Amino acid sequence: MKLTLKVWRQKNAADAGRFETYEANDISEHMSFLEMLDVVNEELTLKGEDPVAFDSDCREGICGMCGFVINGVAHGPRRGTTVCQLHLRKFRDGDVIYIEPWRARAFPLIKDLVVDRSAFDRIIAAGGYVSVPAGSAPDGNVILVPKENADIAMDAAACIGCGACVAACPNASASLFTGAKITHLGVLPQGQPERYERALRMVAQASAENFGSCANIGECEAVCPKEIKLEVIARMNRDFLKASWTSRGASAPAGGE
Ligand code: SF4
Ligand code: FES
Q1: Distance between CA 210 and CA 228 in Å, rounded?
Q2: Which residues in the chain come in under a pLDDT of 70?
Q3: Residue nearest ligand 1's atom 7 by CA
Q4: Which pLDDT belongs to residue 140?
Q5: Strand order in the sheet with 69-70
Q6: Coil vs helix vs strand at 110
Q7: Which residues line ligand 1 (CB under 6 A)?
Q8: Looking at the DSSP assignment, which residues form a beta bridge with residue 98?
Q9: β-pairing, 3-9 with 18-24?
Q10: How far is the CA of 78 from the centre of ligand 2 (A)?
């Protein structure tokens, strides 16, 4: 198949940036989107031109490194799929495809399709861990976890930190990511000692990183390659409110698992 690519090229954050047009010829529909970009880059390199910079690592949808906007949609047209797992059979011969980086103040551009997502690392460093002395690994089933909570924690832990939720949100909010990270520890017994402190610190860090607030639009859930649900944001808000009330000496509202 033959594709026309309109790719965002930008040398660095100070450069104005612009779309450049590239033809991708003799492309197999079985290739992944990134393999197609590899072919384009090989041709650019052979011509002595600068290849398009983009992030990738595992190319199996599990590491969270890849990600850019394809025809206006973060990670492209296939729901629940990272761009490395997107195959060209989702496109038609002769298609014109626009490719752009994540655009958010908290994700400054490094080059072309690569942005700096270290703000996510700092949110994790603010509380996305368990630091209580837990001793050596206990025998299986010593700590009983209700099946429902195990499922909620497992689903939230599927977040790969790709940043598509931020890129899709009109407010560039990191609430789906932060909510997922707060949830996956907060509903497990091991996460209880620091549960509310964790919510306070991680939400404060997200705010300090210049991510916007959640306005319940839901674009994040629609593009998330791991199909993280908006419920994690509700749980984050509940834990945050409970922590705020408690730190002010007020009695916290009841509820929440
Ligand atoms: S919540 Fe989804 S879209 Fe956001 S960082 Fe995690 S995996 Fe990516
Ligand atoms: S390269 Fe690892 S998720 Fe895409």
Answers
A1: 22
A2: 250-257
A3: 159
A4: 81
A5: 18-24, 3-9, 96-100, 69-70, 73-74
A6: strand
A7: 159-165, 176-177, 180, 224-226, 228
A8: 6
A9: antiparallel
A10: 15
Q: Encode pLDDT of 167-223 as tens digits.
A: 999 999 999 999 999 999 999 998 999 999 999 999 999 999 999 999 999 999 999
- For residue 177, how far is its CA from the centre of ligand 1 (angstroms)? 5
First to last CA, the chain: 51
How would you classify the pairing of strands 3-9 and 96-100?
parallel
Atom of ligand 1 lying closest to residue 163 CA: 5
Name the residue of 33, 35, 37, 60 to mutate for ligand 2: max ligand atoms within 8 A of Cβ: 60
SS3 content of the chain, % helix, strand, coil (to 5): 40, 10, 50
Nearest partner of 41 among 5, 68, 65, 69, judged by Cα = 5
